[in-house]
Write the structure tokens for this entry.
Amino acid sequence: MAKALVIGANGFIGSHLVDALVADGHDVSAFDRFSSGEPSYRSSGVELMRGEFLSRTDLDSAVRGKDHVFHFLSTTNPATAEADPTLDIRTNVAQTVELLESSAAAGVGHFYFASTGGAIYGPQGKESYGETDRALPVSPYGIGKLTIEHYLHYFRTMHGLDSTSLRISNPYGTRQHPHKKQGLIPIALRQVAMGETTVRLGDGSMVRDYIYVEDAVRMITAIVGRDRRHDLYNIGSGAGYSINEVFDSLRRVTGIDFPIEDRPAPPTFVDRVVLDVSRYTEEFGTPSIVDLDDGVRATYEELLASLAE
């Protein structure tokens, strides 16, 4: 099997990706700061590469000899990118270009990039969005992701670095940090578990495509090492849930009728984003998708266990 490097291996999606790649028989190296101490992934036999994403020297060393590089690290989230757009440009975009330079120079066979399906299409008023729809992001986070996608095209044309962009919808599930500012489901579950008021942005009608993290990772790993007809795929459930429907699921799972505080939604938030995943299913088959209640339950049980420690 291939030598695979996961950048952001101690993160929410990255740690699950490490486990899935190991299960598929790949020789996996995990690159991250590992500032929280122990790795989040569960697999043994993984090469732990402690390093700084903002260090070109660390990146050069990490990509050397690798067949596949999975870039699943972001220095910003939608909130921090909006608070300081130049931070996203200076760290996320610029350093990803350096990572691409390192990968091209090292002769990496394939580069996989975790883009965003939740922010990249923008407010176009469609029921769902396919890969052939225009990308019209209105948030700095989405703009940065689209910029990196364009750089992937440049490096393919100029340096022959093959790549795939993965427009991931709204992943949720185990190992997602509930204290960060990204991820409605883990944040709301923490508030419910702590007896706090749960924050709702807008009137609750905002619709997103939520996908359980293990489902998203299975969709991604099914692409690895296979012939592909495209260099861009939506990764999502193909179904939409409003915030109010998500809160209904939280009530069913927790058995708690929690109080809600309404706050205005930021103007860059899009009312509806559901991904059309027909390109993926036509090429790789229909993936199994965990039911929302079951995914929320697994996330809640892990949260309760961590609070009990």
Remarks:
- The longest helix spans residues 85-106.
- The chain is about 40% helix and 20% strand.
- Residues 172-209+239-308 form a domain with the UDP-galactose 4-epimerase; domain 1 fold (CATH 3.90.25.10).
- The radius of gyration is 19 Å.
